[in-house]
Amino acid sequence: MTSCGRTRQSQHRRGAAELAQGLDLPGPPRGSFCTFQGHVQIFEHSSTDLDARYASLAAGISVWHNSAGKKLSREDDKARCLCGSLFPSRPHLVWCCPAFQESRIDVPSPVNRAEERLFARAVNELPRPPEDTAVHGVKAELLQAIAELVQTSDNLFLATDGSAKNHVASWGIFVPCSDRAFAAGVEGEDQSAFRAELEAIRAALAAVFAASSQGIVMCRHLTIVSDCTAAIWVASGFEGDVIEMRARRFFELRRSLRAVGIGVDFKWVPSHGKIVRGWAPHPRATEAQLRAWNHAADRAANGCMQRLLAGSARLRWATNRKEAKTWELAAIRAAARISAGYRAHCES
Ligand SMILES: [Zn+2]
């Protein structure tokens, strides 16, 4: 952003009081990073509104744009702004012209040239995800809970779910036989909801395999209950080119479990009480059970995610992004109103 020609140099027309000038602001701080979220949103919804489209591109809205192809002299009426000054620039019309004060009344004034000229507010880059210091303890407790069941139950159900918000993700596992839920944060940079769903299944399979190596194994069937068809698709054996590496980890886990006599199947359950035509429960679990287990896994994952998100750098980052977008939208909408007003003035 600091190397952009429109913000690097002042280009303020000094010493000419009769000119309709913009503000005289400093450049954006060194290393500033802009994502133009407001611009993108308005551009995508402005195919029939030329003023909004120009504003979203920080283009148009100046005497030179509105008199393109004509050579205006100082004496020309069209060279004069509504406020009486000469040759109004975009920064003048959008931020300074008293004739358009009402149009920008809800927009906090720009503080640097990126805001003034590009309607762009600098944002923070995505920080590291919060670290879940409890993850090892949670995995140990999960292993202990499952180890007892693997040694005593023929069939084992585990419900898994993931939760993600503002690039902070957690996985959750509900163990119906012991009525206990376990949840921990997802490790690594990818904190998407899909990754969280996969991590939940992976943690469940890994825990059963680890438990099976601790003693006699009575368990012959493990059913993973999940509301994510894409995660089930990856975890149940897809070995295509696109996500081969990710699928391979599941394939190997399932093969290891098969080697100790535990077959794995997956049962999809509609999330959040949704009714899906043709969906049937599992032969060994009722609809009410499957939905309740899914809900318990969801609640565990969501609670953990909320705990990690609260006070995290990623929450501050998300707030910063939201505030930047809100300001950009307000600035661009004001610029579009002013564009229409100035265009009407030029055409009159
Ligand atoms: Zn003016």
Structure report:
By secondary structure, the protein is an alpha/beta fold. It has 2 domains: 5-126 and 317-347, no CATH class; 135-311, 2-Layer Sandwich (Nucleotidyltransferase, domain 5). The chain is built from 12 helices and 5 strands. The protein has a 5-stranded mixed beta sheet, sandwiched between helices. A hairpin with a 4-residue loop joins strand 2 and strand 3 (180-185). Helix 2 (37-44) runs antiparallel to helix 3 (50-56). The longest helix has 35 residues, at 313-347. The chain starts with a helix and ends with a helix. Zinc ion (ZN) binds at residues 20, 81-83, 85, 88, 92, 97, 99. InterPro entries: RNaseH-like_sf (IPR012337), RNaseH_sf (IPR036397). GO terms for molecular function: nucleic acid binding.
Question: What characteristics describe this protein?
Answer:
348 residues; alpha/beta; Nucleotidyltransferase, domain 5; 5-stranded mixed beta sheet; 12 helices; 44% helix; elongated; binds zinc ion; nucleic acid binding; RNaseH-like_sf; RNaseH_sf
Précis, in short:
This protein is an alpha/beta fold and about 350 residues long. It has helices at about 5-10, 35-45, 50-55, 65, 90-95, 115-120, 135-150, 195-210, 230-235, 245-260, 285-310, 315-345; strands at about 155-165, 170-175, 180-185, 220-225, 265-270.
